């Protein structure tokens, strides 16, 4: 059995948490391979809502091993808080969770730097989640960050944090003209996280490879979406990792050929949080607001209202191609009920290059095909045969534009609201 990757096909927030929870019913291992506390994976069980930021969504299944892979940037303070909240609800976190010794640590100063660098960019700001993601990945590539293994020795950890802070404070004061961060303001809280995180430290790569040798089922849980990829997204309005299938091998430390299935998650429309081009955005306030309200489109991590727009078949095709999706899951199909007409972008005019230049997307004019809407409430449908004809036609069009079979359609936020094809 190979690794099953579950990947956001758009700009994140496609509903990966719910889909991972659905598949983790039969999974032995669920492993996150990139990103950090910028993710907000929302899962509903009955009517109770869980928002997970760093802990893989498999934690809601009591026998699933949940790994934070080496491709992640792990915030130990946030992680200890998240684990505490889950333990209060009765989850067996300490038995289930493993944290890669070679993931990198997000330190308090990384979050400060995220905030001040965004402020310095003024109207060019990326619109980050301010969780310290960019500064930590920058330090990782500059070989300046502290890996999780730095926690192993208390004295050396303190020395390493102090040395790193000296460098980071030079940036804060000399580049950004800000006051320095004082170790005493955060040290006690940071040091206390050792007690929670140390027992969880493991070698994720070896664990996953061993699980595969034992024919166990392994899910690689993506965060964000492929259009936010550092290399293949709408740079510079991107995150600092590889959210797509290509990130799985290096993010977990496994051979690329071990990934045998990759499910692309797409909303039936599009959303984006933060800045950056969005060709099919409904900039007309009323229409965008209607989609936002119907889909409850507010960020799970930051609470920011999400920008909303129609499905973009050009970007969908691009995403499916570079991720090699073997199958597709469409989420939030229920949100489109009661829209009389559903436009879908089928091409761009005014492209300045003969290839799809994601860095110049704000210059394109999308053209649309129009699909008939449906009035029926589909949230209780148990099979696709119960779907209205107009939705089936729309799903067929999505499938053709994505070039991979749609296997699952999600029809509401709850665990049970999912229909298999
Ligand atoms: P960062 O990952 O916090 O550095 O933010 C970079 C960009 O990625 C910003 O546009 C964020 O809004 C976006 N982003 C980061 N995490 C998520 C997510 O989980 N869902 C959607 N967008 C995200």
Throw out a few tags for this protein.
single chain; 421 residues; alpha/beta; Adenylosuccinate Synthetase, Chain A, domain 1; Adenylosuccinate Synthetase, subunit A, domain 2; Adenylosuccinate Synthetase, Chain A, domain 3; 3 domains; 10-stranded mixed β-sheet; 12 helices; 20% strand; binds inosinic acid
Rg computed from alpha carbons, rounded to a whole number of angstroms:
21 Å
Described by strand count, sense and barrel closure, the largest sheet is: 10 strands, mixed
CATH homologous superfamily identity of the largest domain: Adenylosuccinate Synthetase, subunit A, domain 1
Molecular shape:
globular
Give the rounded overall mean pLDDT: 95
Produce a short descriptive summary.
33% of the residues lie in helices and 20% in strands. By secondary structure, the chain is an alpha/beta fold.
Question: Could you characterize what this model shows?
Answer:
- This protein is an alpha/beta fold and 421 residues long.
- The protein has three domains: 161 residues, Adenylosuccinate Synthetase, subunit A, domain 1 (Adenylosuccinate Synthetase, Chain A, domain 1, 3-Layer(aba) Sandwich); 91 residues, Adenylosuccinate Synthetase, subunit A, domain 2 (Orthogonal Bundle), CATH 1.10.300; 156 residues, Adenylosuccinate Synthetase, subunit A, domain 3 (Adenylosuccinate Synthetase, Chain A, domain 3).
- Helix content is 33%, strand content 20%.
- It is built from twelve helices and 19 strands.
- Helix 4 crosses helix 5.
- 48% of the residues are buried.
- The structure holds inosinic acid.
């Amino acid at each position: 059995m190979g690794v099953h990757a579950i990947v956001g096909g758009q700009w994140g927030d496609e509903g990966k948490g719910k889909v991972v929870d659905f598949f983790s019913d039969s999974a032995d291992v669920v492993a996150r391979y990139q990103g950090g506390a910028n993710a907000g994976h929302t899962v509903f069980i009955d009517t109770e809502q869980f928002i997970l930021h760093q802990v893989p969504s498999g934690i809601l299944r009591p026998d699933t091993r949940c790994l934070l892979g080496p491709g992640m940037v792990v915030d130990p303070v946030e992680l200890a808080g998240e684990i505490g909240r889950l333990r209060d609800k009765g989850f067996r976190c300490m038995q289930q969770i493993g944290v890669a010794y070679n993931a990198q640590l997000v330190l308090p100063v990384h979050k400060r730097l995220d905030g001040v660098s965004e402020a310095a960019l003024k109207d060019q700001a990326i619109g980050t989640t301010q969780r310290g993601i960019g500064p930590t990945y920058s330090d990782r590539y500059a070989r300046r960050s502290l890996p999780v293994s730095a926690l192993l020795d208390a004295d050396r950890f303190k020395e390493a944090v102090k040395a790193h802070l000296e460098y980071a404070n030079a940036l804060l004061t000399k580049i950004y003209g800000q006051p320095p961060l004082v170790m005493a303001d955060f040290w006690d809280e940071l040091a206390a996280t050792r007690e929670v995180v140390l027992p969880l430290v493991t070698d994720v790569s070896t664990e996953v490879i061993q699980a595969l040798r034992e024919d166990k089922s392994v899910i690689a849980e993506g965060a964000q979406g492929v259009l936010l990829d550092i290399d293949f997204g709408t740079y510079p309005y991107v995150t600092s990792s590889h959210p797509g299938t290509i990130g799985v091998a290096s993010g977990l430390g496994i051979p690329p050929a071990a990934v045998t299935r990759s499910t692309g998650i797409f909303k039936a429309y599009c959303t984006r949080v933060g800045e950056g081009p969005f060709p099919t955005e409904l900039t007309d306030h009323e229409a965008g607001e209607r989609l936002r309200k119907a889909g409850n489109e507010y960020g799970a991590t930051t609470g920011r209202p999400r920008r909303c727009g129609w499905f973009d078949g050009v970007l969908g095709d691009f995403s499916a191609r570079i991720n090699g999706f073997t199958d597709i899951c469409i989420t939030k199909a229920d949100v489109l009920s009661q829209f009389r007409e559903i436009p879908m972008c089928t091409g761009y005019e005014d492209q300045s290059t003969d290839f799809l230049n994601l860095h110049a997307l704000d210059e394109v004019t999308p053209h649309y095909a129009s699909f008939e809407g449906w009035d029926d409430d589909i949230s209780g449908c148990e099979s696709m045969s119960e779907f209205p004809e107009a939705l089936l036609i729309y799903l067929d069009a999505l499938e053709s534009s994505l070039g991979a079979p749609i296997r699952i359609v999600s029809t509401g936020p709850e665990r049970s609201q999912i229909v298999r094809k």
